[in-house]
Write a structure and sequence with these properties.
about 210 residues; elongated; DNA-binding; mainly alpha; homodimer
DNA sequence: TTACCGTGAATGAGCGTTCACTTTGACTGT
DNA sequence: ACAGTCAAAGTGAACGCTCATTCACGGTAA
């Protein structure tokens, strides 16, 4: 039948998503109009609606991309040797050694999505699922580290994984909002903090126990 | 002449800001209309414009509140004993022991503001200034800790302060987006990570007590 | 050939903002 | 004390604009 080939259809769809990513990254979700996206993609305003139900649908697609970028790599941190190594692995896709442009755009979208999570129920559910999966992956890696003797037994894998996720998210915000893109320095300092102990005296540890 | 008293004027203004805070927290910046805010404040649509130049102006006011909440407390962390204590102090206003509602609302606004930073130049400048100030305050506290011998000399105060800010921001996101509001558990785990060293093996100089 | 694809002007809803008008309350003169 | 005064404050319907979405039509590829 006289459609276009699936291949071409996929390519068109991908082009629209890529255009949306650029627009969202540059202007933000709410300052980007559907005609903006269409123009950036080189198609007419109506064409996008052959591929997406609406703007919301495109945002969800982008959100899926950001989740994949952030969480998928964590699923295969098999043999992380230490807590600091775990962060390095976690932060790897963020560091932007590869695909610098696409990664940067997606990170700018990520921060905007955090804001969307507050009002978009289905998006929050998806994000929460991804977060819990990532946290579980990190916790598993930490448990393996404890078995191997490279991670202290006192570490609570689930709680430590939560701390690592906080570090990852904070790192993203710093890069995107404040231009602090030296991920390596961040990881290095974290290594110092966790491996050499920032605390020498138990004096100020009323938080313990 | 026949105005209202300055006191009353201030109160009205504060009521509008408070209404905006509630609306923004509940519906998000872009899903909240000016009439929404006015209705929540119990005034008519036009009244808000006697107090604010426009919606943008109200958002800026809220942004100022969030910056004050997050950064002002850090300016007086005089005698933090350790890295983990520093985070506890940093996270204190966030923990929501006091003003639970107002703090929660402001934190939800905070996450949305992160998204605004990407496209609002003046807001990013203000946020960056607050961030650098907070980072400097934390770095100073760390230096004092080093002088007092409660913080390891290997710690780079500026970099470590950056890590602490990432933890704070990540903690906020977890609370707001994923409902993880157990700040105490977070601080406790961080204490374990920094004080007992998550890493036992790789070339770790052992400066522990 | 023909069923789908792309087009872009049209549509309608929603929003920020304004403004002609009414109400209010601080000041004034007694 | 107090009533009158009047500029500012409050009102809410209306305006103009933007934007997401639609659709009737010409184009195109299987």
């Amino acid at each position: 039948m006289p459609r276009i080939t699936q291949e071409r259809r996929d390519a068109n769809r991908a082009a629209i998503v890529a255009a949306a990513r650029r627009c969202f990254s540059r202007q933000g979700f709410h300052q980007t109009s559907m005609p903006d996206i269409a123009r950036e993609a080189g198609v007419s305003a109506g064409a996008s609606y052959r591929y997406f139900a609406g703007k919301e649908d495109i945002i969800l697609e982008i959100a899926g991309e950001t989740f994949a970028m952030m969480f998928a790599p964590l699923h295969q941190v098999a043999g992380a040797a230490s807590v600091a190594d775990l962060l390095a692995a976690t932060a790897d896709p963020i560091s932007g050694e590869r695909d610098r442009d696409a990664v940067g755009e997606l990170l700018r979208c990520t921060v905007q999505i955090w804001g969307e999570l507050l009002t978009n129920e289905s998006m929050r559910e998806r994000a929460a699922a991804g977060f819990e999966q990532a946290r579980a992956d990190l916790a598993d890696a930490l448990r393996r580290g404890q078995s191997a003797g490279t991670v202290a037994a006192e570490v609570d894998p689930d709680q430590a994984a939560r701390v690592l996720m906080a570090l990852l998210h904070g790192l993203i915000l710093q890069r995107v909002a404040f231009g602090l893109d030296d991920t390596a320095a961040f990881a290095r300092e974290l290594q110092v903090l966790v491996s050499q102990a920032g605390v020498l005296t138990p004096g100020g540890s009323e938080l313990k126990d």
